[in-house]
Amino acid sequence: MAADHHVWVFPVWLGGLPAITKGFIDRIFLPPMAFRYDDKSNRIRGHLQNKTARIVTTLDQSGWTYKWYFGEPSTWQLKQATLQFCGIKKVKTNYMGSIRGSSAAQREKWLQHLVKMAQQDGHSLSVKV
Question: What is the mean pLDDT of residues 13-37?
């Protein structure tokens, strides 16, 4: 897990992570690389401190609806139960939706927004070095 910044981009499927994304997590985020169990207690020690992450999801509903009405289950799981569990505390989340029925102009706007986010993330990483 040598990367200082992790970027996750995936569609939300039935409220959750796609199976292939979950399978990847299950194979990569393992002890002793991503975390370890404390020998003297049930505590977990994450090994990915000082790293950052961005989650970008596509949706067939508005990001507002997914976040506030449904409770953002897929991004909550990735952010809280995986990334932060393993020590990545600074995680930003962005929603793009509704994709279904969106115009080419709207999709271009989302892509331009992604470019700006990537530039900001890259700049904040280069400042840390």
Answer: 90
Q: What is the DSSP letter of 67?
A: I
Band of pLDDT at residue 55, cut at 50, 70 and 90: very high
Reported pTM: 0.86
Rounded to whole angstroms, the Cα distance separating 97 from 57 reads 8
Burial 27-50 (b: 16+ CB within 10 A, else e): eebeeeebbeeeeeeeeeebebee
All structural domains of the chain, each given as residue ranges with its CATH number in brackets, are: 5-128 (3.40.50.360)
Pairing relationship of beta strands 35-37 and 90-96 according to DSSP bridges: unpaired
Q: Is the pLDDT of residue 126 over 60?
A: no
